[in-house]
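Usage

Read records sequentially. Each one opens with the input sequence:
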Amino acid sequence: MPLHRLFLLLMTLMPTLPAAAFDTPETPLVIGHRGASALLPEHTLAAYARAIADGADYIEPDLVATRDGVLVARHENEIGGTTDIAQRPEFASRKRKQVIDGETFEGWFTEDFTLAELKTLRARERLPELRGTAHDGRYGIATLEEIIALAEEHAARTGRSIGLIPEIKHPSHFQRIGLPMEQRLLDTLAAHAYAREAPVVIQSFEQANLRALRKHLGAAHPNIRLLQLLGPPDEQPGDALAAGKPTRYADLMTPAGLQEIAAYAEIIGPWTRLLMPVAEDGALGTPTALMADARASGLQVWPYTFRPENHFLPAAMRESDDPRTRSEAGALEEIRAYLALGIGGFFTDDPALGRRAVDDR
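and closes with the structure output:
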């Protein structure tokens, strides 16, 4: 039986095993969200190196697959907005539309290109209206293997272990087209001595692949943990949508849903506002029950994403009316408010600010 079909079979037939105990770190962990993506184009080796230099405990590659099955770091498999592919006439004919997780996208998709082809592209800033384009064209697309090697190099030089927290993007989509990423991810991690020992957290917005990974990992990989990402309450995980199930993220955030997650994962990763919404006056409001319910289920909470620009901050923490302005004081205030809830880690586009928020508490 082909390996990807066996993995799909495991998803549906194997029972869920309880997740191992995972103590909340004494010092909350700073996660470089796509690297130091507030400062350099996301998911580039330069952005990851900057995140490590700025004090990140973990670096986060979002993973998608190439046509030849290599895992590369891109926020989405559609790369029209984060590379210069639209300016490459040799690839113009490959622009197309496809439905992913129930939504129609048009552009260029990693699964239509070999790694060699993708390596000819140059990265661009995903949010040019906020962060400018000064670094466009300087960096290429990174593979997971290159990211592991980068973390290993920095760890050897500094004596500080750098964790890896890869996200498997659109797993049901890639399984459907014959490019499942789960086993490829495990094989790539197993092939590197550093990744067999360093802290690793595998994350996904879907449940089925995390359940299968829990069964596969068992107790044989003590350095690997699993994190269930939580999206907008009214949206559905891609695997639920593909299977015609009614499950929404709101269902996963109930006490019963969190108990279910705790059977296969150690951590949840909710959007920040699911823990503490913004009130009408522009300040952070009253915390929801999610933090307390998660901790009652034995789950750690690592929210996403803290960003320093006014555009992303609560109105009361902004420094001007310009959405591009970096409000470092406001960003630090926001992070510290969530640290006070007892989070075990957090994703940030600016790890230097995240490090300051943690160290200067």
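Summary fields computed downstream for this record:
- The two ends are 54 Å apart (CA to CA).
- The chain is about 35% helix and 15% strand.
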